[in-house]
Amino acid sequence: MGAPLEFWFEFASTYSYPAAHAVEAAARARGVAVKWRSFLLGPIFAAQGWNDSPFNIYPAKGKYMWRDLARICAAQDLPLKKPSLFPRGSLLAARIACRFADEAWVGAFVRRVYSANFADDLDIASPFVVGKILSDIGQVPAEIMKAAQAQDSKDAFRAQADRAVVLGIIGAPSFVVDAEVFWGGDRLEAALGWASGKRGVAEL
Amino acid sequence: MGAPLEFWFEFASTYSYPAAHAVEAAARARGVAVKWRSFLLGPIFAAQGWNDSPFNIYPAKGKYMWRDLARICAAQDLPLKKPSLFPRGSLLAARIACRFADEAWVGAFVRRVYSANFADDLDIASPFVVGKILSDIGQVPAEIMKAAQAQDSKDAFRAQADRAVVLGIIGAPSFVVDAEVFWGGDRLEAALGWASGKRGVAEL
């Protein structure tokens, strides 16, 4: 068993959608454990002077990204519908994914929240949408939501977001292995290689 | 023979360095022809409000990029030395690559200019450095440089840069197949797949 792979994601992040659907199976095939790490990009973007997604601030980047995402989703046989609101708030779902990161059901929860946002155009900020997903995977929504919004859960989520900054994470999805950061879904294989011991890159 | 792959590059672009070294061999293995397309990122960045490389404007992105580049170069067995000046001007070399894009030696020229910048920390804006590279590959520097700086060559280079904007290119390296843009060295395989006929992605 190699080092675990931390999967850092934010539910509004477009490229995190296909990555979230791919990461667990790809890691399992390599014998690498996945650690789910939800966080918010807002504070990280704000530190760079952005008050919105860079895909909205820079329309040429946004246009490219949606086309690129369509190709990636097609290659993964994942449905994609451009959300009517982008980026969508996702604090409740992100806190749930943080509070219950070690539960066996968290992968299924994460994938369904992404699909709600990017395949079904549902408002993932809504407790009704999040509650329905929790029921669908056999959890009791009221209990989960209550626990995720307790003060210690909020504090733990905030601490996790702070750790993203310390690690040098600049976007989502990011894969982290022993503090080595790989940004972008296209870096999954490189990160898995790192987890399996293919390292040896000198400092510049 | 599938559609040709256009390789859009700028000599100051870090990620274009390993891509320039990989593209011809990878394309040949798939039976895809490479069209070399040099351009300048300056005007494209200026249109987004940047007067410098985003890797300099956003230090967290820059720090990540250099580490990521080191990993990519290590995987390709390419030497990498952080240039003492970044980004470096490269107008002369870029005009040469444009004017002589269809010559058999252009691939070797492009790779050597990149290596001068990112492996040997040489000033690729200097006619002496560019001239040495031309001699090394068997060309007559004075003739090549004179032709590349003739008015029609300057005009052709400017027209090529304008075409980058029309295509929706937002960074380098980019691969273009039948006007479909793939941004980033990590998109080479996807672009080659597109050139070989793997398409069929719906508009969003």
Lay out the secondary structure.
Two copies of one chain form a homodimer.
Chain A: E1 5-9, H1 16-30, E2 34-38, H2 42-47, H3 54-57, H4 59-75, H5 91-99, H6 106-118, H7 127-136, H8 141-148, H9 151-167, E3 174-177, E4 180-183, H10 188-195
Parallel strand pairs in A: 1-2
Antiparallel strand pairs in A: 1-3, 3-4
Helix pairs in contact in A: 1-6, 5-8, 5-9, 6-7, 7-8
Textual characterization of the structure:
- The structure is a homodimer of 204-residue chains.
- In chain A, 52% of the residues lie in helices and 9% in strands.
- With 204 residues, chain A is α+β, with helices and mostly antiparallel strands.
- The first copy, chain A, has a four-stranded mixed sheet, sandwiched between helices.
- The radius of gyration of chain A is 16 Å and the shape is globular.
- Chain A starts with a strand and ends in a 9-residue tail after the last helix.
- The mean pLDDT of chain A is 95.
- Chains A and B meet through α4 and β4 of A and α4 and β4 of B.
Write a brief structural summary.
The structure is a homodimer of 204-residue chains. With 204 residues, chain A is of the alpha+beta class. Chain A is built from 10 helices and 4 strands, in the order βαβααααααααββα.
From the structure above, extract its key features.
homodimer, 204 residues, alpha+beta, four-stranded mixed β-sheet, 52% helix, globular
Helix content of chain A: 40-55%
User: What class, by secondary structure content of chain A?
Assistant: alpha+beta
Tally of strands of chain A: 4
Q: Say what oligomer this is.
A: homodimer
Tally of contiguous helical segments of chain A: 10
